[in-house]
Each structure stands twice: as C-alpha cells, then as structure tokens.
Queue: 4 jobs
Job 1
Amino acid sequence: MKNLLSMDEVSTTEIMQILERAAQFEAGEPSQLEKDYYVSNLFFEPSTRTKTSFESAERRIGATVIPFDAGFSSVLKGETLYDTVKTIQQSGIDAVVIRHKEDAYYEQLLGGLDIAIINAGDGTGQHPSQSLLDLYTIFKEFGRFEGINVTIAGDVAHSRVAKSDAVALTKLGANVNFVCPPEWQGEFDAHYDWDQQIETSDVIMLLRVQHERDAAYEGFTKESYHEQYGLTIDREKQMKDGAIIMHPAPINRGVEIDTTLVECERSRIFAQMKNGLFIRMAILEFILKGRG
Ligand code: CP
C-alpha cells in the first residue's frame, strides 16, 4: 500500500494488518521506523480530530512534522493542488496527509509525483483513516466482523464516513443498514424509520448533519429530526444488550443523539478518537516503511 486513498483499495488482509499493528501500538510497542521521515498535513477543510490525531501519531512514530497552513500558503495566490504537493515533495517530504473539499482530489496527484498521499477526507467521497479507526473500535468490541449488524443513521448522502465504512464493513462480512430521510440516502437503499433496526443492531453509528455541504434539515426542525432519526433516550433503551453507539464527530448534540447519551455506557464516541491515534500510527508506519 503506497497511498491510502479509499477503502475500496484496501484489502481485507491489509485492514487486518493495520488493526493488529494498532493494537501493538496501543500495548506500548515502539515504532519500527529506522530512518528519518518527513510528513506534512495539508488541511484545506476544518478538522479537530483527524489533524491533531495524525500530528500526534506522526510524532509518536518518530517522523518529523513540517507545518503547512492552507490559509497562509501560495494556494491563496492560485497555486494548484498538484503544484503545491510537488513543491512539498521537492522539500524532501515523504508523505502528505490531505483533506480537501473536492471529491477524489487525489486523482490529479497520482501521476508525476513521488510522495505518499494519505486521504484525510475528500469532499463527499471517503475518509479511510476514520473508517479504519471505526473498524478497530468494532473489532475491539466484538472480536469479529462476520455477522455483526451495523446501522448507519443520518446524513448518509453527504457522509464520507458512511461510504468508507459501508465498503469496508461489507468486505469484512458485516451486515450494513442505513436509516435516514429519503432525501439523504444517496446511493444506498435505506430504511426511513428505526423500527426494524433499533433492536437488532450491534452497532448504531450516527452521522453528523453536514450543514456546510448544504444538508438542510429538509423540512425538519432540529427537534423533529431528533425525534424521527436521532438516537433518543427511548430508542437507546430498546437497543440490545452489548450493542454500542458510535459517531465520527463532531456531534450536533440534541440532533443526531441526545446529549445525555454522548458519554453513556454504550457510547464509544470518545474511545473512537483515542483508537484513531493508534490506527494512524499504524497507517503512517505501514506507508513510510514501504517507501524504504
Ligand atoms: N471525524 C472527523 O473527521 O473529525 P474532524 O473533522 O474534527 O477531523
């Protein structure tokens, strides 16, 4: 694996190798990198979790982080993404972690560059490092994927997490269902209410309503959206024993999930963020070691 672009391209063997290495990092094993590597994080869209988690992971595996601030870069003078990344490559950087508003922005970078690309989110495309940390969270909980019932609920159409997780979980043998308003089902078949899913799901994964991508509430108020599609206190009581709640965050509290459930016993929302650190250490080590 030279780059991490989308979960379509990551084999089940590679997924399991990354999960295993993440578990070793979590157990305190040191990095296996034997030379100096340089990494830069190019975030053209806002991020709290992914950016800080990648930077922490880079430092923990011994890579040198070269700062990049999109708001003070020559992108503002009209430089293309290709020219920006090629310029960074010429500065001796081995890998870039990129978040960008354009779907599949990485396609323009695949010819003519010798730098590893790690996709930290492309438009409404995919978010593979989030998917891998979601997989790690589920695997730690259940010890398998085969037959696990995962329901992904909310703004599916705009969600790169939904797409990445649906691809990866299906490949690994989980059963993936969607609950959302008809307007937000995107390319997927979906249930338009919780009736069939709430009592049978092992994992309920809630998605943020993405106002920045023009996901209006489509005739809902925040309250009515929460009542119809959110995880309410009453719905949580109907979840089966051992079932868990996930959300990639940031959260619209009181919309996707009742605020009192964010840190309830079933919730793995903050655990997902911690798991992300170990997963990103594993991803970076995997890709940087492959560069020799
Ligand atoms: N889950 C996630 O991608 O969060 P950030 O946008 O804060 O990175």
Job 2
Amino acid sequence: MKESVLRLLKKGYPGFVSGEAICRSLGVSRTAVWKHIRALREAGYGIEAQPHAGYRLINIPDRLYAEEIAAGLPTGLIGCRIYHYTSLVSTNRTARELAGREAPDGTLVVAEEQTGGRGRLGRGWYSPCGKGIWCSVILHPPVNPVDAPPLTMLAAVAVCSALRRAAGVEAGIKWPNDLLVNGKKICGILTELSAEMERINFLITGMGINLNLTAADLPAELRTTATSVLIETGRPVSRVAVLQAVLTELEHWYLLWLQDGFAPVLARWKEFSVTLGRPVRVASLKESWTGLAEDVDENGALLLRLPAGELKKVVSGEVSL
Ligand code: BTN
C-alpha cells in the first residue's frame, strides 16, 4: 500500500497531491495515508506536508528499492521479481537459497552492502554500503549444463554495454568476464551453477559493479587495481539507472542467446575485448603460460599462441595483461 501512495506522489510530482485524493483513489482512511507517508519518510523519501495542499515528493533516496528499480523497467523476464536487502553476507548466497525455494527465472537479489561478498577463485569482493551494485540474478536456462559456460561471458557483454550506455565509461572485457576501465577493474562477475548430469537446476549470475566509490573508499590493497565510475568520470551516477540498464541488456543478450546461440554474443564480446591481440600471462589453478591472446573459440575458450608457436586452448584461468 505504501507503494501505491508513492506512485500517486510520483504522478503528482512536482506538485502536491491532496490527502483526500489519496484516500479516494486507494479507498483508505486519512490515518492510513498518514501511516504510509511516515513509513515512506522512514525509508528515506523526502515528503513535504502542507495543511491545505496535501503531500509533495521532494526527494528520492539513493537506495536500490524494488519499486524504484521496477518503475519504468522495460524487461519482461529479468527483474520480474526483486528482493532488496539493506545488508547481506552475499547476494549469491541468498539467491541460491531463494532459487532452492522456487524463485522464478529472472529473479533479482540486490543488497546495499555485502559483509562477505565473494569473488572468483576463492577471493572476496569489497561491497561497501550504497557505493555500487551488488546483485545476483537467478536463471533457469533450458540447456544442458555443458552449454552453460557462455553465460558468464554473456553477462560481461551485458554489463559492459550498460556501463558504456548508462554510466559513460569506456569499459572493456578482460577474458573471460572482468570489466576494466583504463586497465583497472570496475566490475567482477561470479557465476555459480547448480545442476544434475543433464539438467540445470538453476544458475546464479552475481555482479559487483563499482559505481560511486572514491579512491579513499577503496582499501589500500585495491587502489592500484580497482576503479569506479566516480573515479573515472569525476561524477556520481544513479545506481538505479545503471541497474535498470544492466537488467535490460542482460535480458536482450540472454533472449538472443536462447534464440540464436552464442555466436552473436561472442561477436560483441570480441568488440569489447581488451585481451585479444595482446601479450598476456594466463594462470590456471596448476599451471601458467605467457603468449599472445590470439582469439577465443566458439565456446569462449582463450586461444593462446605460445612462444614456440603452439596454439594453447585455455578454458579457465586468470589473465594478467
Ligand atoms: C570476481 O572475483 O571478479 C567476481 C566478483 C563478483 C562479486 C559479486 S557482488 C554480487 C555477487 N555476490 C557475491 O558474493 N559476489 C558477487
């Protein structure tokens, strides 16, 4: 019900909406309206009240509330259900629990902060309150588990497009799915799969996108390797607007992948790549190689030209440029 009051205030913005009009439109008492206004103020909405004019919205909090994300979101699938939390250990962990309880395809889990954000290869992910997008999307792709790995590169394409379009940064993709700006990491993606031999139960795509962190917000050990939109452009960006762009792009590329396969996604991935054509070092869990990152194959594996001329196919690992 407080969402309906908010909708009316937004419709009336920047003017006043009378208490009586709200009561009439929602079929509730003056006391009920007042209670909802109080709840909205507690959630951070600025609402002016004037005895004869009614209520007027004066500001919207910088929070990733479900109703703010959903307002005007053009997607049908991704973000069809949104769970917002002030604080979580890890959105991937909560998404996994929700997926086990039948959360539908496209469900979004988002938190203002993570106290135990997880990264790839057992690392952590720094996720301070209100400074970025820390979120996970639950998917149920109707494919065999062996065909799921491209989804992690697909997510990178989606976030890269969204950052270029909605945040004005020239992000590029380091194989397989790190997003860099000027050589520093701005977004990391952690994809986790729950599957049986021939069937995917669910897949979680967790995205950590650094938006409004200053250099001073970053722990000293990350300052040389990490960046944010604010650091790169000097301007803070609307977290809601960037998240809406991410969800929109994710839906576009996901539906295209289901319909036409991985080739169109891979073509865009190559356009965004900052790895291909460069000398790199690749470390897997057991080995490491240096060579020229020549290409990726049709499944997204990195094709590395070793100094002796051999072409080495790498399916997982960490690239250093
Ligand atoms: C990486 O190491 O590059 C991947 C980082 C992924 C971080 C995101 S933040 C939201 C989601 N929840 C997590 O615990 N991790 C992912």
Job 3
Amino acid sequence: MDNVLTFDGEAVEPATDVLRRGGLVAIPTETVYGLAADATNGEGVAAIYAAKGRPSFNPLIAHVADIAMAERYVTFDPLSRKLAEKFWPGPLTLVLPLKEASGIHPLVTAGLPTLAVRMPKGNVGTIIRTLGHPIAAPSANTSGKISSTTAQAVRADLGDKVDLILDGGACAVGLESTIIKIEDGKAHLLRPGGLAAEEIEKVLGQQLHRVDQRAAIQAPGMMASHYAPDAAMRLNAEDVREGEALLAFGPVRARNAERAVAVLNLSEAGDLKQAAVNLFSYMKQLDRFGATTIAVEPIPEIGLGEAINDRLRRAAAPRDGA
Ligand code: TXA
Ligand code: MG
C-alpha cells in the first residue's frame, strides 16, 4: 500500500507538503477518518468533492488546531464558546457565522454564511498548526457509503484517489461528531454523533432542539440514504430470516439466530460506547458475507444510542437510484 504512512512525527512534514500543493490526505481523528485538504485552497477542496463523488451543495467541516485559530474565521456566541471550552478537542462540531474575507474557500461552506468547525483530538492538530490553516475534511468514504474507521478501510474505498493515507490505527469513538448550532440562545442538534446529547444538555442547562433532518436545508448532508452497505438493512429485528446476517447488541435475543449467515455482536456487554466503535467496521464486514439483508437487534435510544440508531436508519433508508 504505497500511499499509506504510519502517523508518527515524521509523517507531519510530508502530509503538510501534500496539503500545501492542493492534494488530499486521509487523516485519523477520534471520530472517523477524514479526507483532508487545505480549507483555503480551492483546488484542494474541489479534489475532496471529486474523490468522494459528493454533491457540491454539501458543506464540509473545517478542522482547527485550537479555539484561537477558529476565531480567525468565525464568531463565537457565549453558549458556543462554553461548549468549545468544555468539549474541544473532541467529537463536537459547532456551526458558527463565518467572518467576512475569512479566506475559507466558498466550496467548503457551499456558499452558506456559516462554517462548521471542530477541533479534533490527537496528532492531526500538529499538521493543522504546521500548515497554518484549517483543514476541510469530510469522512473519508465514497459519498453515500459507510464511513471509514481504519486506514485499511480508507484504502479499500478510495484507493489512489487520495495522495496520502495516514495510519493512526482504529478510531476511538467510531461515529462522526455531534453537530450543534446555537441560534438566539437556543441549541439545535443538527446531527447526533460521538458526543451524547445528554452531555451537551447538562453543560448548557437546556434541552437540545432536534432539527428535522429531512428538512435538508440546515445540514444538507442529512440525506435520508447514507452509510449504505450493499445488503439491505432490517432494524429492530426480533428474529433472523433465511439468508440474513445478524448484527447483535448485548446477549443475543433474536429468534433463529443460528440461521444467520454471519453474526457480529456490537457489544456483548450491551455497552453503547463499544457499539459505536464497532458499528461501521462491523457493517462493512457483514456486507462481505453476501447476505441479502443485515438484521439488526434493537439498540436503546439513549446516550450514544441516538447517533447509532441515526446511522442505522440512514443505512436502512430507501436508496435513490441504486
Ligand atoms: O467527525 C466528523 O465530523 C468527521 C471527521 C472527519 O471530522 N467529519 C464528517 O464530515 O463527518 P462530513 O462531511 O461527512 O459531515 C459534515 C456534516 C454534513 O452533514 C454537512 O451537511 C454538515 O456537516 N455541515 C457542514 N457545514 C455546515 C453548515 N455550515 N451548516 C450546517 N451543516 C453543515
Ligand atoms: Mg460523511
């Protein structure tokens, strides 16, 4: 795998060089792998859309090294600042008003007056600091496919469309970041993710307003069908039918489980954090068994279960076209 490099200190310079030239680097973050370009480089950002086959109306997240870097590009209201101080670096993205003449390429925001920003955990910050600009990075997967949580999965999905893949091992969270937008002091949850809504509510002292994600305008990335494996998905399954694979959670309860062409358990102990870590790679693995359908046992809608169920519902949604 000629374009894969172990992510240690020596990888920082070559990775930054690729970004400076307007190239693409796949980066490990605590949530999922990202497909990164310099957010101020139009050629680089355009290459992201091309590699993913992504509709260009779908804006990207700008990853910053710290709050001070974010402030060069966006304006923080008091609640957003509170969240950034509490949860950054971490799996939280804030949608904030973009400053004028910010230098962020308009392809990043798809022309919106706001910018989604987040400070990821880990060594990526060193690359961002060395580059001196935020990096735009959607999840490193073909548009509509399952997000990648390992360098091998990125390589299998995107191959040579990426100049360099940094291998930082498996992602610790396994789900994309939670996206929050504060408007007039009210907190809106645009996408459930790796930071549980309850934790945000505790810090804000208010309930999050769940945005109807099919109302597409707030977060155009919220297309119904997403994260789609080749197999169909059957959620809240209480039994296993002919030809199905089983994605279990907790002690297996589904009837006829012995029928399954393959079984993977997201967490035998029923731990949602562990289930989040395993979700995308298990969906991909089960897909390889050629099952017609992946039956999924019920997952409780609490904590990270909200984001897990969100991704499962998208994977199960009717596919447009194919
Ligand atoms: O954990 C993550 O968030 C990962 C890692 C790589 O950081 N990134 C990620 O990016 O999931 P992506 O592009 O797959 O999802 C970004 C989401 C999309 O749903 C997009 O519509 C939304 O963020 N978004 C971006 N800018 C926005 C804006 N200005 N207003 C509302 N939603 C926005
Ligand atoms: Mg994505």
Job 4
Amino acid sequence: QVELPRPRQRRVFAVANQKGGVGKTTTTVNIGVALALSGLNVLVIDLDPQGNASTALGIDRTSGTPSSYDVLIGELSAAEAIQTCPDAPRLGCIPATIDLAGAEIELVGMEERETRLRQAIDAIPAEYDYVLIDCPPSLGLLTVNAMTATDEVLIPIQCEYYALEGLGQLLTNIGLVQQHLNPTLNVSTILLTMYDARTKLADQVAHEVRSHFGDKVLRATIPRSVKVSEAPGFGQSVLTYDPGSRGAMSYLDAAKEIAERGTREIV
Ligand code: ADP
Ligand code: MG
C-alpha cells in the first residue's frame, strides 16, 4: 500500500447530494478506508439517521452508544464519541444512532443550530488529517450543519437517468450557506459513481458532468460492481472485502487524486 501525502492542514469534507442512493455513504466509507490504509488519520462522521456508514464500517450503533447526535446537541465532545474501525486502525468513526432521526426537528429550537457541528469539529484531536461527513439525503439542518463545518463539498453523482436532476437545487443551497454561514465553502470534488461502461448513458452523463464542472470532477470513476454493494453486509469496505476488485482499485485511485490535490493550494 502506497503512502499518500498529508495535507498542509486538516481537510474536512461534506459528502452531500440530496438525492438518495447516489453513493454518498459508499463513497464516504471507501474513501475513508482508502485514505486510512494509505497512512493518513481519518475520521468519518455519520450524519445520516439511517447509520449506513457506521454499519458498513463495522461500528456499533445500538441505542445509547455515544453518537453524532450527542455531539450535535453538545452532550459529548467529538473525541468522546469516536470509535476505531476494525478494518483500519487509523480510521475513527462517530456513529449515527436512531436518536439522530429527531435531531432535524430538535435543532430548530436550539441556539446556534447551524454551527453546532462546526464547533465540535474545531475541537477534534489534531492528529486527524481528514474528516468526512456522510450527509443524509436532504438539505435540512443536518446537511446545513455539515456544510457549515467544512471547507469542501464532495458530490457523488450517479451515472444514471436523472443524475443531474436536483443538482441545481444543491448548488443553490451551497451558495446560500456560503453567503450566510460559511464563506470558505467550496464544491471541490465531484465523483462519478455506479459507472457502467457498457451503457451509452453512463458516458453521456460523465461527459455532461465533466463539461459543466471541469477539473472538479475526479478522473477516477467508480464502476457499478456487485462487490461494492456486497461489502457493507459484512461490515467492511470493498478495500478489505475484495482488495483486488475494480471497485476497490477505483476507490483507491479516487482517494489518491483527492490526497494529491490537497497538497496544492486550494483557491
Ligand atoms: P446514498 O448514501 O447516496 O444513499 P449509498 O452509498 O447508500 O447511497 O448507495 C446506494 C445503494 O447502491 C447501496 O445499496 C449501495 O450498496 C449501492 N452502491 C453504491 N455504489 C455502488 C457501486 N459502485 N456499484 C454497485 N452498487 C453500489
Ligand atoms: Mg447514505
């Protein structure tokens, strides 16, 4: 396994797209593991009440486990809620428990409701090079918290029909967060997922996304692959479930590109 370069300063990503099923969780998990297996210290924060990222990483998320909910409401510090992933000792995870399902509504009545996660992340131990936040499929307060806490948004786009539907709304919301809450927020990275080379459609979507977003789009694309979809059922990333598979290789390539970009100046 190659070592990837450490960023000059910690990079925090919100992995977001209000469409469900586009590969947010799969991307968070596999990029997280890829970076961690390459010598970097990574923290995944599961901000989706479904808790799929926690499950895929083999992390306990039974009710009562210290979780992202406790961190958001200020009950625990981020450090107190971190568990270590069995797959990768350099990978920590703050899981989502069922409590998070009510947070979207509870937060409405709270002070500093948009900046709670940012405050928590500011206090994360210095050893973490990357923080990846898996957002729920909505543009509500949880996603707003993620976008307020990060500098970079990573948008996974599924190479399927309607791939670009809703993207305009996502970009508008990112613009609003930029204006009102977080001026340094930036869509730094777009990843094409579930790419099926046999279909013309996948090529068309990829071409359209690349012509619109230019070099924000990673060169690596993630193929549609059964191994990728099987791995979470074993509490594993595809990198440990089947290291030689195309899915594993493509997530490693994507992680490498992300890490190499991180050593450049981000404008
Ligand atoms: P989201 O978090 O955006 O809702 P997920 O990452 O959970 O999306 O992916 C949705 C479904 O598609 C899951 O069942 C997942 O296992 C599957 N999936 C994701 N990426 C791939 C891929 N590259 N190939 C095959 N199945 C995939
Ligand atoms: Mg998800």
